[in-house]
Amino acid sequence: MRNETPDLPRRMLMGPGPSEVHPRVLAALARPTLGHLDPAFVGLMDEIVQMLRQAFQTTNQLTFPVSAPGSAGMECCFVNLLERGDSVVVCANGVFGMRMKENVERCGATPIMVEDPWGAPVDPDKLRAALKANPGVKTVAFVHAETSTGVRSDAAALCAIAREFGALTIVDTVTSLGGIDVNVDAWGADAVYAGSQKCLSCPPGLSPVTFSERAAARVKARRTKVQSWFLDLSLVMGYWGDGKGGGRTYHHTAPINALYGLHEALLMLREEGLEQAWRRHAVTHRALVAGVEAMGMKMKVDAGVRLPQLNLVEIPAGVDDAAVRRRLLNEFNLEIGSGLGAWAGKVWRIGLLGRSATPAYVLGCLTALEAVLHSAGAPIQLGRAYGAAHAVLTA
Ligand SMILES: *Cc1c(COP(=O)(O)O)cnc(C)c1O
After folding, report:
1. 245: confidence class by pLDDT, cuts 50, 70, 90
2. Cβ atoms of 380 and 316 closer than 8 Å
3. How many angstroms separate the CA atoms of 346 and 311, rounded?
4. Which residues pair with 310 in a beta bridge?
5. pTM
6. Residue 6 above 90 pLDDT?
7. 243 pLDDT exceeds 70?
8. What gap in Å lies between CA 82 and CA 63, rounded to an integer?
9. Using CA atoms, how far apart are residues 149 and 144, in angstroms rounded to an integer?
10. Confidence at residue 338, expressed as pLDDT on a 0 to 100 scale
11. 181-to-11, 93, 216, 308, 309 alpha-carbon distances in Å
């Protein structure tokens, strides 16, 4: 055991999260801790809720950050909307879709799987067929931005189909919120969760959620208690406020300083503007792709369904995945992500999440990758990536 806090390295965070945290957010975390019912803090809570509504593009009353990471936001949606014996259509095209299935089973409900291969988006026609074949399904769940594969699904289309069949939707926007268009009201999505450490660029540990009137009505009409005390919306809203001006009561001690950080990050997103943030992600993505391809490497998924904020690059034949990532970390302070599941060892996942989506990070990443791959003897084109990326950034 050491007697002093160790010095930690400063990394360029370009994996699948956490992303770069801006000094303004780090400074906000260090503000004086207040009581969780202090009137000075309550004002901040109201602003967080307002800014979350703007980020989600919703007027949903029931909007707040769950005091736990994205997986808890996921669980919050499932435990509140589902009751034992329900049937739920789960669309899965990667790791997080399969985590949704786990949630359904643990709620005592039955998942009906609509599966698409890794690298493909959720197929709306398959969802429609599943709903036709299973009348009475009340809930459809899918992931908007599948972080394991770097693929975007058509959330508007999937929500529209679910509504046609009278089903509510649970939508994972953990990796999408702040990076690409998440429009909860235009989609007509019902229970939507996100995370703090992806495109919002906060430290991990908070999960913004939002629920439509239909979802709130479903929760109110439950025959059974929500099995999780901590995540029970009817209880937790006593603290976050019901929007009807009722007083706030103790539920759990909120992570006050973490919420200062979220407040600051949402302020920064608002200052930049949602659309400008999406543009920044799109441009840095195009630059990264140009550089990767100029080196002679390939992107893993089709251009039409790629997430700008999560880029899957095929590892060239004969290259040692772990050794390259270790050298990037040790020699360049650069973190990129490894592949998951069947794609482990086959791809790298390069994140351009939130504040990591900058020209300097793209150019730095390409230069470091080129240096490490070249010295490892990989068959890449030297001296082309920087120029190709730079041309996109300055176009
Ligand atoms: C990261 C992520 C999660 C889980 O969030 P945690 O904060 O790690 O619990 C869920 N879904 C998707 C799509 C993610 O990318």
Report:
1. low
2. yes
3. 13
4. 307, 351
5. 0.97
6. no
7. no
8. 19
9. 12
10. 98
11. 28, 20, 24, 11, 12
* 195 within ligand 1 shell (Cβ under 6 A): yes
- 296 φψ region: left (φ > 0), alpha (ψ -120 to 50), beta (else): left
**Cα of 168 to ligand 1 centre, how many Å?**
21
Query: Ligand 1 centroid vs 252 CA: distance in angstroms?
Result: 23
**Residue 60 and residue 1: Cα distance in Å, rounded?**
48
What region does 150 belong to: left with phi over 0, alpha with psi -120 to 50, or beta?
left
Q: Quick one: which of 354, 276, 270 has its CA closest to 48? A: 270
Decide whether any atom of ligand 1 lies within 6 Å of the 96 Cβ.
yes
Residue 91 in 3-state DSSP? Answer: strand
Query: Among candidates 276, 208, 197, which has minimal Cα distance to 21?
Result: 197
Domains belonging to the chain, first-starting first, are 23-271 (3.40.640.10), 274-393 (3.90.1150.10)
Helix H, strand E, coil C: the string for 252-319 is CCCCHHHHHHHHHHHHHHHHHCHHHHHHHHHHHHHHHHHHHHHCCCCECCCHHHEECCEEEEECCCCC
Q: Pick the atom of ligand 1 nearest to 71's CA.
A: 9
CB 197 within 8 Å of CB 216: no
Mutational test site, ligand 1, from 19, 174, 198, max ligand atoms within 8 Å of CB: 174
Q: What is the pLDDT of residues 264-302, one digit of tens each?
A: 999 999 999 999 999 999 999 999 999 999 999 999 999
Contact 305, 116 (CB under 8 A): no
- Residue 237 in this model has a pLDDT that exceeds 90: no
Structure tokens at 215: 């979802």
